[in-house]
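Re-run with default settings, no changes from the original entry. Doing this only to confirm the output is reproducible before filing.
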Amino acid sequence: MTTTVRVVLADDQALLRAGIGTILSAHPGIEVVGEAGTGAQAVEIVRATRPDVVCMDVQMPDMDGLEATRRIVADPDVHAAVVVLTTFNREDYLVEALRAGAVGYLLKTSRPEQLTEAVLSAAAGEGLLAPEVTRAVIARAVQERPPTRPAPQPVVPLTEREAEVLTLVARGLNNDEIAAELVVSRATVKTHVSNLLAKLGLRDRVQAVVYAHEHGLAG
């Protein structure tokens, strides 16, 4: 990535914003361009700064992070990817965040490198979920599938390697971890992910997780 990823941080705790900002700013390709302490402030600052990525807390005063995400994603003049960063490993928050248009969902207990990876992935058009959250997505897919209806079969054929990559995505692995698992380069993994998303008509890795489970490709 040759351009700097511009990030806005939205969290009602100034100390946490400072910590997150320090982690992200340590990466030479990331610049924090704004901070917000409420959801309403986040919407305003995003409109003013036009960042590439927003790190969004869920519970904030005035307007929660889920509503702020909906407004940011719905704004035709804004093209920021939203990564929800929260202390709550709750299925309802996860599902609502994805419905609101978030492309990533991480817990605040994630490692610093996971946070950086999530921001860079979001800027590159890739969604990223923490492994703990991936399990919740799969559980939700099972719950919502009608019990008398068999899992659908894939209608678009994937190559053997694309199917392998999809299975690893469904396990919550990031591109570097998939590359290590398959002993290939990160660039090769990115190509496979892009190809399988395009073939299956999926928006991002989050949708790929659900698709893999529903089609028996989650491993």
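The CA atoms of residues 11 and 38 lie 7 Å apart. Residues 5-137 form a domain with the Rossmann fold fold (CATH 3.40.50.2300).
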